[in-house]
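Supplementary notes for students who missed Thursday's class. We covered one full example, reproduced here. Read the sequence, then the structure, then the short commentary at the end.
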Amino acid sequence: MTIQIPRISHGYVDAEGVRVFYRETGPEDGIPLLLLHGFPTASHQFSRLMDALGSRYRLIAPDYPGFGHTETPDDFVYSFDRLADVMECFVTAKGLDRFVMYLFDFGGPIGLRLATRHPEWIAGLIVQNANAYEEGLSDLALDTIAAPADALDGLFTLPVTRSQYEGGTTRPELIAPDGWTLDQHFLDLPGRKDAQRDLALDYKSNVALYPQWQAWLREHRPPTLILWGRGDAFFTEPGARAYLHDLPDAELHVFDTGHFALEENLPEIAPLIGQFLERQTHMKVAIIGATGNLGSAVAREAAARGHHVTPLGSSDVDVTDPSSITAAVAGHDAVIVSVKGPEQLVPRGARALLEALPVAGVNRLVFLGGGGSLESEPGKRFVDSPDFPAQYLETALDQTEALRIFRGSDSAVEWSYASPPPVHLVPGDKTGSYLAKARDTPLTDEAGNSRITTGDYASAIVDTLETGSFIRERFTAAAKG
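Structure (token representation):
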């Protein structure tokens, strides 16, 4: 029998003048999981989870300023904005440009600040007793948020620290004393209680941002796994279910435990996290048209992110034949299509895909269409302009017809139709500086220009697949600037 035990490394990163301590484990390929801890703990709360999953997935857990082993200058101002600033700098220093976030307790307001600042970073969310809705705040939480400074010192004592671990649990004998003992050690270090008092007084800033975070969730619809201990004295079960208002496709699991759900229910929770990460980091993707310019760029990007790519050319599949498509893509999680050709190949392919994919058991499709069907102004498509280049007209009209077919379909296929800028899709590598939105007009910069490199466009396509964005919508992408 082979037993795989991951090696966990430890180190520091200089970020915003703060020496941030972190733990890291797992292989370099695939999408990392950034573990954001809560109060009054630090990255050590994830040690057992890292042991459980670190042989298969890359996990990174930092300590915030004022927590754990992180070293902070004497003049550091403790607020949730500043903690998010430091974590933003930490993420950049670690070279993380795409990751899943685990949000626990304080990790919620810190992580959601990162998400609204950098939506392109977020491949998915795991939310565990991290509140973003007023209905999830208990009376105790509301009283604590409104309490004056001189009423907060009791929060930082050993009995309260211990109660956060044992409160609401079903089998308190499963809760090791090491967690609350180590937490209290850090709380008792010089200056730490002052830091925590400042953060407690600033917690109201998080509640004020709830509507903004909810709007972000509605717009971006990241794949989300919600894990919740229903015995949490601060963040109640309605707060878990409230996420479903904005993330109706999220997966929700509620456990008969307290705030620190991993302490009692790791054997049940770790497999759920592993399955979620597997879906986000190792999808099986069939790419029809993978030998073309755009198709090959998308294939390279998807493979670089750890997905299992099946490249399909015209010798492998007839995109106009439903039976050929079904045979070629069965067993895959998603299909990306980038094709063009004579005799209305593109619209015929669109019809065949909508027929074939449900039979093949594949419900996700990203179709690379054209920019000619975008509108220069409402009701005026670029393809209808007398100045539209004649050599591209047939393909543009075919791609426009394909969009009409998708929009008129009642198929169960969750399609997304991608349109590049109508003129300036230019050769170039991925820069990571781009936007993607569901709309019928091009995205432009302040000078009115709309352009994107093939590398960034390919990245936007794979982003859409990973995040489940733009379901049954046309979207377009363009460089920032």
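Commentary. The mean pLDDT is 92. The first strand starts at residue 9 and ends at 15. If anything here is unclear, bring it to office hours.
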